[in-house]
Amino acid sequence: MYDKILVPLDGSALAERAIRHAEGIARAARGEIILLQAVNLPMPVVPEAVLVPDSKWLAEAKKDAAVYLHGIAAPLRDAGIRVRTMVDERPPADAILHVARGEDVDLIVMSTHGRGGLSRLLMGSIAESVFRSTSRTVMLVKPEPLPVPAQKDESRHIHVR
Fold first, then answer.
1. Domain ranges of the chain
2. Is 81 left (phi over 0), alpha (psi -120 to 50) or beta?
3. Nearest alpha carbon to residue 4 among 49, 24, 28, 34
4. Cβ–Cβ under 8 Å, residues 72 and 35
5. Phi then psi for 8, rounded to 5 degrees?
6. The pairing of beta strand 82-88 with beta strand 107-111
7. Over the stretch 28-84, which tens digit does the pLDDT of each residue have?
8. Secondary structure of the chain in the HEC alphabet?
9. Cβ within 8 Å of residue 157, ≥6 positions away
10. Its pTM surpasses 0.85
11. Fewest CB within 10 angstroms: 8, 58, 146, 160, which?
12. Which CATH number fits domain 4-141: 3.30.70.100, 3.40.50.620, 3.40.50.150, 1.10.10.10?
């Protein structure tokens, strides 16, 4: 059912949470996991600013991404999962959609950063953009909720004699 599973990663532990879900699905379906990292220049903060791509920076970033993905892929391969890695120079959402189409993936498994409200409005949401722009099945892995700190019992007890 899921022969090819795309897992976009950004180097964060949060993004890597999607791997265990993809691994379970790949194991059950005897599918292949494609690990993807997008490497591109960030957008300028000032719209009038122009960033000139630095080929040295890009080459180094691509090399670092390949090493990172290899490190993620190794334990999956050791566990008997078929894994490929890819580095793409497009912005993250574009890279995910491009690889999903080009590789004809059956499932995209990705983490969300759990942003909402103003933060998502200002920063955008790669997961939301991918979800809305593809006809492929997308599994979104939500971040684990932060633990609720234990509260002291500060209630006042009045003893009446």
1. 4-141
2. beta
3. 34
4. yes
5. -75, 135
6. unpaired
7. 999 999 999 999 865 555 555 555 666 788 899 999 999 999 999 999 999 999 999
8. CCCEEEEEECCCHHHHHHHHHHHHHHHHHCCEEEEEEECCCCCCCCCCCCCCCCHHHHHHHHHHHHHHHHHHHHHHHHCCCEEEEEEECCCHHHHHHHHHHHCCCCEEEEECCCCCHHHHHHHCCHHHHHHHHCCCEEEEECCCCCCCCCCCCCCCCCCCC
9. none
10. no
11. 160
12. 3.40.50.620
Residue 130: name the closest of 141, 138, 121, 122 by CA: 138
In this structure, the number of other CB atoms found within 10 A of the CB of residue 72 comes to 18
CA dist 19 and 128 (Å) reads 19
d(CA 154, CA 73): 50
- pLDDT at position 145, please? 64
Residues forming beta bridges with residue 86, ordered by sequence position: 36
Most confident of 89-93, 98-102, 122-126: 98-102
